[in-house]
Amino acid sequence: MPDGCKLAAKIWLPEDAEEKPVPAVLEYIPYRKRDFKAIRDSKIHRYFAQNGYAAIRVDMRGSGDSDGVLEDEYLPQELNDGVEIIEWIASQPWCTGNVGMIGISWGGFNALQIAAKDTPHLKAIITVSSSDDRYADDVHYMGGCMLTDNLSWASTMFSYNSLPPDPAIVGDKWKEMWLDRLEGSGLWLKKWLQHQRRDEYWKHASVAENYEAISCPVFAVSGWADGYSNTVFRLMENLQVPRKALVGGWGHKYPNFGGEGIGIDFLREATRWWDRWLKKIDNGVDEEPMLRLWMQDSVSPLISSCPGRWIAENNWPSAKIENQEFFLSKGRIHLEEDEIKNEDMRIRSPLSVGLFAGKWYSYSESTDLPHDQSEEDGGALVFDTPELEEDIEILGSPEVELELESDQPIAMIALRLNDVCREGTSTRVTYGLLNLAHRDGNENPAVLEVGNTYRICVKMNYVAQNFPAGNKIRLSISTSYWPFAWPAPEPAALTIKSKGKLILPVRPKNKEDDKLSYIGEPVLSEPIKSTLLEPAKREWTVQHNLATNEVKQQIINNDAFLRLDDINLEIGKETTEVYSYLNNNYNTVRGEVESTRSLARGIWKIKTLTRTVLTSTPTHFQIRAILDAYEGDTRIFSKSWDDLIPRDMM
């Protein structure tokens, strides 16, 4: 880099690239190319090299084997480094000068963000599971409510940032670099909680602030089980460049890792995109429908499959879709408003509503998907249609308009749209959250005046779903959604008026969908060699101790313990998350995440332990955290945090 910082890269090249230069594809993330992402990377980037591209994986400044300290997400330094990396790649003798970026999650974010900078050699990007608005649609906040994945994700990076570079790469300075990281990376959760509204901190690197800054073609990808599907539709609506969208039945993964019956041949689709914009091959990609989407069929919530079919839209918004209004009365959803009598409905939900909600950015595994929503509905207001006489298919963002009062100045509302089958099981289709202090926007929240009536509109996440004849459509409304989202400062009761509206984006079936080309089964390149030392362990349990009235949700997320054979390096990661409360008391709500990571080669053995605990009072959040680092059996670093952060109408 211009300031002398060295960034570590791994490069896959076609065998003759030195004699016949090729375009290049960059993935630029903080997830350690040499160890924890080495197997995944080899399956993807080797494929690109085998298909005529230079593939480059760069460890971000302060991560993996790169110099420096990583202090937060999407800092100006990160984006400036990204521009420099692209210019370096374009100048290499094996590169034609045309560069693309690909990335999922963090890498999808910075692909968009770097595309919005002056980067002349960046000719196209593929952004997977990313966001154009860092406040509205990321792991931190949703509808002005704090997601507990804010804690989970902060703890993931806390753990990642605690690891050293590999001495085999950086030499004797590895320990000095490690200590700099341990001391300097900081507690990111504290930074994120200091910005509880959409301020300049979140506007930075949110490309929604200026879509016109993006001047290269964009291929946007997500999955319905992921938390990032909304961005795809906003990008298609607002960008002015050649663009394409793909949303399938998978979760927070590249689609080629989607799992049996869910994944697709995504690397072929990616290569077709690169062929069009990096090699200028007229292969028709830019003449295909703008959006290709998986229309989900009705399915039991007790299994993780995602049946359905592919559909397509040539443009977004689509002229085919009609917003159909339904009206709410006590327990019912009606087609006509005039058959409803005026009647108030009151709800104050227990904290148990949300225990079966799954994860915000699900990996589409059986452990983290939403369970049967019948488990949640005892603490919610529930509205059902009669059994449907014919199929209803929706594509878009369902909306709910309500008139309500609150008995507290700060309250939240959670809405779920469910598919209820004749047997009674209830599958969550989509959902929306709103901190009612954010009813008029996320930049300038305002408390509610107790006794006043407010008209609100809650937009749910985008979805494509078929509700079959014989099933019912259900809307469920609750005042808590724990531990999916952090609860309001005090329990609130909402009084909801009759004749609220449920607005569904109804899409008629289109015979043209049947003519779509086959998108293929997942294909991956051969991975690097590894030896399994201990299998992965995934568990998700809910416990209610009837003697103490303590409720816990415990998540075990241990990766496989492996040896990477080529570099003789053993790697391990174990994580446990626990979310709990006692006696339905909001002051006892607690989230705790503990992670252990290890690296070992011969006598060189490294282990780090991170633990973060988040609690709250009506006025403050409290963070307690520890970081311990071991070289062999000797603890060489220890640090703790104990911070109070005022709640800002949150």
Automatic annotation (TrEMBL):
Domain Xaa-Pro dipeptidyl-peptidase C-terminal positions: 271-520
SUPFAM superfamilies: alpha/beta-Hydrolases, Galactose-binding domain-like
Organism superkingdom: Archaea
Alphabetical list of Gene3D superfamilies matching this protein: alpha-amino acid ester hydrolase ( Helical cap domain) (1.10.3020.10), alpha/beta hydrolase (3.40.50.1820), Galactose-binding domain-like (2.60.120.260)
GO molecular function: dipeptidyl-peptidase activity
Alphabetic keyword roster: Hydrolase
Family annotation (SMART domains): PepX_C
Pfam families hit by this protein: Peptidase_S15 (PF02129), PepX_C (PF08530)
Annotated protein name in UniProt: CocE/NonD family hydrolase
Organism name: Methanohalophilus halophilus
